[in-house]
Amino acid sequence: xxxxxxxxxxxxxxxxxxxxxxxxxxxxxxxxxxxxxxxxxxxxxxxxxxxxxxxxxxxxxxxxxxxxxxxxxxxxxxxxxxxxxxxxxxxxxxxxxxxxxxxxxxxxxxxxxxxxxxxxxxxxxxxxxxxxxxxxxxxxxxxxxxxxxxxxxxxxxxxxxxxxxxxxxxxxxxxxxxxxxxxxxxxxxxxxxxxxxxxxxxxxxxxxxxxxxxxxxxxxxxxxxxxxxxxxxxxxxxxxxxxxxxxxxxxxxxxxxxxxxxxxxxxxxxxxxxxxxxxxxxxxxxxxxxxxxxxxxxxxxxxxxxxxxxxxxxxxxxxxxxxxxxxxxxxxxxxxxxxxxxxxxxxxxxxxxxxxx
Length: 357
Ligand code: KG4
Ligand code: ZN
Description:
By secondary structure, the protein is of the alpha/beta class. It has twelve helices and ten strands. It has a five-stranded mixed sheet, with helices on both faces. A five-stranded mixed sheet has the order 8-7-6-9-10, sandwiched between helices. Zinc ion (ZN) binds next to helix 4.
């Protein structure tokens, strides 16, 4: 643990289709070791938050093309990091540590960020901190909601992952259930594709759903009673796709697909399951505080339902702001900074991993 009290941390994110970089300043005076009790006392300044999105490139293909993603990271990483440093008004030599997404994600994308971060770490002679991207999504809620209590129940809902964690501290995440097949965001993206909407489908479905009837179609909800915290969205996705095909074939091609009603009924089905399983975990583990994070957590219907049902069962549900729900460098800098200040760093011989380790 460094004896300095103010640390500048750079966070680099390249796990999927966003090249992102942020610089934050963490002042830990008078804290020696950051715990769930004293994290609230950290003073954090967000100095820059730069994101280069690759969505226009991938949307032509209806989803993320890994080969293109890694090449775009190679092109974007230097300008994005330069911009983050410039916006923060600091010099590279002022940095205390370099945090980078290490897992989970697309290997060929992660490796671009990791190689860049290693080179920076060697040239500046400062520590490297490999960060678990999922934990970073959950942890960043504590940056904006400084009174967040630990332990809390954490639901991660992103394009690649859906799982429920018991978050004991900013450094301790215990997985109690996860999806057996598609992630929630993946189901949004696949259903959107079947409806002829461009990638990423989540925000488009969400916009259509606001004007649709959530009860127009009764799509399945997979409760998986034997493993109450696990999820399965592939049956739902198939049911929606079959409904779209049935309506299309009935109308002989030129028929009208009720996009808004399908979007609203699909969204209701996903959200019901996410809300009920997460709140069940909170009740069962006797934990009142819940964090919902990851790209799908920016969905307004999901946010509203969590708050409504949370109130009914006495749980307080918090979300990162919408900007910090989807992939960003701030969350990597924040968790990486906490790890660094607790003496957790990563060797230069370490690899990246497609799965969480
Ligand atoms: O966390 P994230 O930015 O990247 C991963 O780590 O996967 O999540 C991206 C996912 C995509 O599947 C996208 O469609 C979904 O989040 N998403 C949404 C919304 N905004 C993004 N899903 C539903 N409603 C939204 N408003
Ligand atoms: Zn993510």
